[in-house]
Amino acid sequence: MPAADDLAVQPVTAALAVRRFDPELGDGARWQRYEIEMPTGSTVLEALMYVQEHVDGSLAFRRSCRHAICGSCGMRINGCARLACNTQLTAVVAEAERRAARRSAPPVTGDDDAALAGAAVRIEPLGNMPVIKDLVTDMTVFWEKLRSVQPWLQSLDERGGADGERLMTPHQYAVVAQGLLCVECGACYSDCIAVEAAPEFIGPTSLVKAYRYAYDVRDDQAHRRLHDLAGEHGMWECTHCYVCTQRCPKHLRVRELIGRLSELAQVEGLRSDAAVKRAQAFVVGIEQCGRVDERTLAETTGAVRGGVSAVVPALASGRRRGAREPVTDVDLVRRVAGRLRGPGSTGAEGAP
């Protein structure tokens, strides 16, 4: 049995399959295979650097800090967006071996299949972005979306404190601390299924940045920020899939932060999605007349604007039931609804 010291220096042998694309060649994207041997403890980024320096100098990818701080080396590794600099090569190889053991290998039929056959590490560019070359993507739209949330402090009060500072308590800082950890690597954006389905969706990275400033006590533009995000392709288009949280290399609770942003928008009265409007109309209808009013519900949620075909089912529902007896004690219903809303509720007019 080898000694512990021998195990520590044993090299890692891995087959990399890298998705290559060169617009000057005009032959489309292809897979290229590299067989390498790296020291134990090497990262996927170090493996790519070895290939670039010793095997194929034409391989293109982004890198900078090598410490998961700059976010430059985002790429898809075995189907998941990650930072190559903090992804251990041995961990990816072991992960691929476990996956291969659970299923039989497909037959090798073409050049791409030959490159992929037995490759433990498959590396591709980030998703939801055009590819410039190999693993380098065009992040222009990503940065434009990020810039659209105006990720900097804004305040109409320029006085500040005695020394011109705007101080925060430890508790106030803790509220926004998660948002400060984002390195804008694009991993969450790459694998966001909402962006894939609707490319105009602003994306999770921008929403995390918006959260950071909307909840910062030194910024007094929260309502305006939320108003902008409550429109089309804003926060309400998030599908709650939690892939963004799974992909974040800094372990941010991305979906939770987006949820808090939505909660603040509701507190500010910015209810833009049909689901929230329907829930509000449901409660308001009960408070006003003691029961659900299908006609008002349809009008409030935009069914009337959707056309006759959208509003007919709501109206037909009321006709089928016929004329209903009026609720005898609407005040009691209102008090119950107010109790359910919680302390400080003022009824339908003050719906949160």
Shape: elongated
DSSP helix count? 16
**Major sheet: order of its strands?**
2-1-5-3-4
SSE pattern, N- to C-terminal: HEEHEEHHEEEHHHHHHHHHHHH
Question: Would you give the CATH topology of the largest domain?
Answer: Ubiquitin-like (UB roll)
CATH class of the largest domain: Alpha Beta
Our Rg estimate from Cα atoms comes to 27 Å
Mean pLDDT, to the nearest integer, reads 82
Low-confidence stretches: 303-324, 344-352
Helical proportion? 40-55%
Using the 3D structure, state the CATH architecture of the largest domain.
Answer: Roll
Q: Bin the strand percentage.
A: 5-15%
Please provide the count of β strands: 7
Oligomer: single chain
Can you tell me the number of structural domains? 3
Measured distance between first and last alpha carbons: 68 Å
Largest sheet: 5 strands, mixed
The secondary-structure class comes to: alpha+beta
CATH superfamily caption of the largest domain? Beta-grasp domain
Task: Give a verbal description of the structure.
This protein is of the alpha+beta class and 352 residues long. The chain folds into 3 domains: 130 residues, Roll (Ubiquitin-like (UB roll)); 123 residues, Fumarate Reductase Iron-sulfur Protein, Chain B, domain 2; 77 residues, no CATH class. Helix content is 43%, strand content 10%. It is built from 16 helices and 7 strands. The strands form 2 sheets. Strands 2-1-5-3-4 form a 5-stranded mixed beta sheet. A hairpin with a 2-residue loop joins strand 3 and strand 4. Helix 13 runs antiparallel to helix 14 and helix 14 runs antiparallel to helix 15. The longest helix has 16 residues. The N and C termini lie far apart (68 Å). The C terminus is likely disordered.
